[in-house]
Design brief:
The chain is an all-alpha fold. It has one domain. The relative contact order is 0.15.
């Protein structure tokens, strides 16, 4: 995982009080998501899923901006 992605995930997880998930290291973010999803209350899973995909989309859009336009955004500026 790149530094930008790592910072964005860490900041968002801290904001949601999911600090326990920050120290977990997975080679595949999909594996991490499935594991964390299992430990999320059923009533909160759709919100957790939405958050996961929104962060993933933000990272993808930032990657495209850096590749094709040049200027980039600090991870903290992408947080809601």
């Amino acid at each position: 995982m790149c530094v930008f992605s790592s910072e964005l995930w860490s900041a968002m997880l801290r904001k949601l009080h999911l600090d326990h998930a920050i120290s977990v290291s997975y080679d595949n973010i999909f594996v991490w998501w499935l594991q964390e999803r299992k430990s999320t209350l059923k009533i909160a899973r759709s919100g957790f899923d939405s958050l996961f995909f929104l962060i993933s989309l933000s990272i993808w859009k930032e990657r495209n901006t850096r590749m094709f336009r040049g200027p980039w955004t600090q991870p903290v500026n992408l947080l809601p």
